Amino acid sequence: MTTHTDETTAPESIEYAPERPARLEWAAHVPEVYKAMVRLDVAARRGLDPKLLELVKIRASQINGCAFCLDMHSKDALAAGESVERIIQLGAWEESRHFYTAKELAALELTEAVTVLTHGFVPDEVYDNAAKHFEDAELAQVIAVITVINAWNRFGVTCRMVPGHYEPGQHK
């Protein structure tokens, strides 16, 4: 039970739902896979703007419903200097395009196309738009980041990793 107070009301007791335990501490059972994922994550992010990187990771995690990754990457984005407003708007980025640069919009559009693969492929217009905003090497890094966060999301949602305990930079 948590107690919440503010200056206008008397102390009030709020009972939150209990925290569900993780289904499986997967990293403990396959430490070599976990270490390989960490190395892949480090390699994928190399050279990318930290704010752009976190926006991509948050958006993919929203789509995949990975609460653990949303917790982690929202905190890392804030620590990198990202605004709360832009993080909040990510869930509706198409309706709030004015919060993002053309480059960020291209990355978000590509993130959705790679994450969802609704048509079984990434549409040419989405790829071409991203290619207009990123040099080839940087575009390859963005695609790698999108791919890696999708893999992390699948571990997170399958094993039901518990959000709320991450400290910014903890897994870097």
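(the above was protein one; protein two follows)
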Amino acid sequence: MPRSSTGPADADTYVAVCDRTHLFPGARCRVQGLPDPRGFAARPAPIDVDVRFSDGVIADARLSADDPAAPVLIVAAYTTAAGTSIDGRGWVVRGTVLAGDEVELILGGAAPV
């Protein structure tokens, strides 16, 4: 069941809007509310993220930037609005693009978590 949040869970969590109900290689999510989007796009830093999917479901996630050249988006398990269970997993972020005041994360393949 979707969380009924309309914004980040707390002040240190950012919303990442995805246009699909799940993630896959090539998927894109737009991180909103970053204080320095240009700097973040150039050099991603670790942040907590609420991934908001197109069906309204929100999943907890963390962008890990232990290796700034290969950040990883780690998404907790969640259930889509249609009832499909999606296991938690990590996704390599193969690119970041500045999109106005948002930063688009472009996902690559699965990453170990």
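Reviewer note on protein two: The radius of gyration is 13 Å.
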